[in-house]
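SAMPLE LOG
Freezer: B-3
Tube label: C17
Construct: single chain, 188 aa
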Amino acid sequence: MSDILLETNRLILRSWRDDDLDPLAEICADPEVMRYFPATLSRDETAGLIKWARDKTSKDGFCFGPVETKSDGAFLGFVGLSVPDYPKPLPFFPCVEVGWRLKRSAWGMGYASEAAREWIRFGFETIGLKEIVSFTTVTNTPSRRVMERIGMTYSPSEDFQHPMLNADHPLSNHVLYRLSKSSRDKQR
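STRUCTURE (predicted):
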């Protein structure tokens, strides 16, 4: 599955190419894009992120991958599924998450929701997952709206502190959204 190619009405979801580094490095260096993450990423750190995603795809069969527009091939960022592999486990591990990171000019156009829905379809119908989760810092309202638009459910009782951040870090408090295959099937 290392060359996954999924399509939506407007988007192509594909595997990583070497020429993705520069546009992704620009996205990961943007303080506004990265405001809900502990720090922006350097070009070398972004190269490490792409290597990590490629390695995860080889290992798990899927991971976050590039999103581009069908109309002109513009690189928008990445969306995909991933098995979180933090050194300290999440309180709801094992799990598969859906996540995204798009450039600012792609915000507000429904691209994250469109790509995430296709990855969710793939996760349930092709991989055979029973549940997909998504999580973010409490204050990340834009991503939380995407999670709600794609049919995920939030339960305040599952709020948690991200294990890789100190408890007093301003981004430590996280919310968890869930979507089961059976819930998705009922929504359709």
